[in-house]
Amino acid sequence: MQGKFDPLLLENQLCFPLYAAAKALVRRYEPFLEPLGLTYTQYIVMLVMWERKVASVNEIGERVHLDSGTLSPLLNKLVSKGFLEKTKGEDSRFRFIALTKSGEELRKRAESIPMQIGCCMDFTQEEATTLYTLCYKMLNQVS
Amino acid sequence: MQGKFDPLLLENQLCFPLYAAAKALVRRYEPFLEPLGLTYTQYIVMLVMWERKVASVNEIGERVHLDSGTLSPLLNKLVSKGFLEKTKGEDSRFRFIALTKSGEELRKRAESIPMQIGCCMDFTQEEATTLYTLCYKMLNQVS
DNA sequence: TCTAGATAAATTGTATGCAATATATTTATT
DNA sequence: AATAAATATATTGCATACAATTTATCTAGA
What we know:
The structure is a homodimer.
Chain A: H1 15-33, H2 40-52, E1 54-56, H3 57-64, H4 68-80, E2 84-88, E3 95-99, H5 101-110, H6 113-119, H7 125-142
Chain A binds a DNA duplex through helix 1, helix 2 and helix 4.
């Protein structure tokens, strides 16, 4: 009478809710980011730049887990929007990406976004911390 | 002496570990799926088809949280690989997607993948369940 | 019955992601 | 100094994602 556990049932896979929840959360950010002229991926790059002010493409990539194939065109877009500028380093293999004044000013407009996202979610602080910790544990183990 | 909490620090955002962990986990699946001729997204669609045998594009889309813009070309690829076939329904606005014999056989080769992924991760059953539950909670709240 | 919505799927356009390759530059070795 | 290996970034090719539009078909009301 008891059904055998099916490992291939969508609902029995941990990967799927993680994959779907991540996509859904990114989509939730987009209406808040659109007025700033940013996509979600551009936003996480800006988070790094607001903190670092200057960084090489590699340094940004390690921080956000993206490679040059994704970052090169994305950084060009942020440069053409005026939020970043790109210069060669002494070692001219490097490109140094730097925050512009316009990029710095954008920070103020982004500051309230995390709270606005958090507000409309019914997560306790403990649940959020648990999810955060387990995601980082997953990230460390699989990447 | 105490630094103010910065909501825009990458490490202070819940979205980032979720986004990065999901991408990393998907990448972890790909070497196991490549011999079967599937990408990760194609795999989750096959999970639905192994369970359902027949479904409309919309039904698949609701299940995997993807729209026709993603599914139409993806289903065409699975049809051209011989795993699925597509027929018109009575109401010819619908396309009915059905599992082929070859698609059915592929199931056996996929059966061990979830365990192989799980094995190389140091997650307790409780941690996995907690992560699973919180991701579904997130998904239900933001989508 | 005729036609205005409604519905399902496909198409278009833009932006990722990432593997693999190419290019440019630097460093190490002879 | 000449060149092989290493390094940083850019480019290419393929596969998503998803909003917005289009196409095809169906249904309900005049």
